[in-house]
Structures are given as C-alpha cells and as structure tokens.
Amino acid sequence: MGKSLNQVVRDYLEQLAGSTRRGRHWAQFEARCLGSPARVGDWHFNRDEANER
Predict the structure, then answer these.
(1) Rounded distance, CA 19 to CA 37, Å?
(2) pLDDT at 24
(3) Across residues 26-33, what is the average pLDDT?
(4) Using alpha carbons only, what angle is made at residue 41 by residues 29 and 44, rounded to the nearest 5 degrees?
(5) What sign results for the dihedral spanned by CA atoms 19, 20, 23, 25?
(6) pTM for the complete prediction?
(7) Torsion over CA: 11, 13, 17, 19 (sign)
C-alpha cells in the first residue's frame, strides 16, 4: 500500500469519523422531512408506480 501502519490507522479513523458525520446529517434531514407540515394531498408513495417503465 506504500503507507505506514500509522497512516493506515489515521486514514481509517478519518473515514470512520466522516461516515458518522454523514449518518448524523442524514438523521437530521430525515427528522426535518418527517416533521414537516408539507403535504401533497392524498398522494402516497407507490413502489409499483415508481418502478413502471
């Protein structure tokens, strides 16, 4: 890999910290979406319609 063990561990920890941050941001986004008063009438997501070609 051309890296020292120290650098490999550092890279891994930076990657792990970044994925934790993304997870937290996603959870905040999801909470805002679910708590939003915005509605689209009586429309509901339909997986079959979404996958029609």
Answers:
(1) 29
(2) 86
(3) 90
(4) 65
(5) negative
(6) 0.44
(7) positive
Whether 11 and 3 have beta carbons less than 8 Å apart is answered as yes
Cβ proximity of 8 and 1 under 8 Å: yes
Residues 6 or more apart whose Cβ sits within 8 Å of residue 8: 1
Residue 1, pLDDT score: 76
CA pair distance 32, 1, nearest whole angstrom: 42
Task: Kindly write down the DSSP assignment for every residue of 1-53, as one continuous string.
Answer: ----HHHHHHHHHHHHHHHHHHHHHHHHHHHHHHH-----TT----HHHHT--
Radius of gyration of the chain (CA): 20
pLDDT of residue 8: 92
